[in-house]
Each structure stands twice: as structure tokens, then as C-alpha cells.
Amino acid sequence: MIEDHLAKSPERFFAGGENLTSADFQMVFALEAWLSRATGLAPLGEHTRKFVENVHARPAYKRALEKGGEYSYA
After folding, report:
1. Which of 51, 40, 42, 43 is nearest to 15 (CA)?
2. Using CB atoms within 10 A of its CB, is residue 48 exposed (0-12), middle (13-18) or buried (19+)?
């Protein structure tokens, strides 16, 4: 369902816009958790992985990790 949604407009974020929204942050956190525990789970689709990569590539995301450090899903 997520993959299909993102495939409809691959250049946009999850909420459908050109800018990130709180929905995008909520979604990327869930997808990061999925990726960190991928054993036994279905692989993420191409568009879903690209969405996560696009968020990770943003300068603000990188600055947040520099300030707060990596996080875990324990």
C-alpha cells in the first residue's frame, strides 16, 4: 500500500507535497524501524526505499543526527 502510494508521485513526499510534513516524519520513522529489523519482514519497495533515502539526504536530517546522535529502536 505504501509502495503504491509513493509510486503515484515519486518526486513527492509521503503526504503528497513537495515539502515534508509531520506525516512524512511519522512515516519515515516507522520505515527506519522496519529497515533496522528487516529479518523476516517483506523487503521495502523501490519507491519506499527512495523516500527514506530522500529524507536521509536532507541537510536538516543530517544536522539533527550530528546534534543528537544516531538513534536505536530498542
Report:
1. 51
2. buried
The length of the chain, given as a count of residues: 74
The model carries a pTM of 0.81
Alpha helices in the chain (DSSP H): 2-8, 22-36, 46-57, 59-68
pLDDT in single tens digits along all 74 residues of the chain: 888 888 888 777 888 788 888 888 899 998 988 888 767 777 889 999 999 999 999 999 899 889 988 877 65
16 Rama class: left (phi>0) / alpha (psi -120 to 50) / beta: left
Side-chain half-sphere of 17: how many Cα atoms within 13 Å? 7
- State the Cα angle at 66 between 62 and 71, rounded to 5°: 90
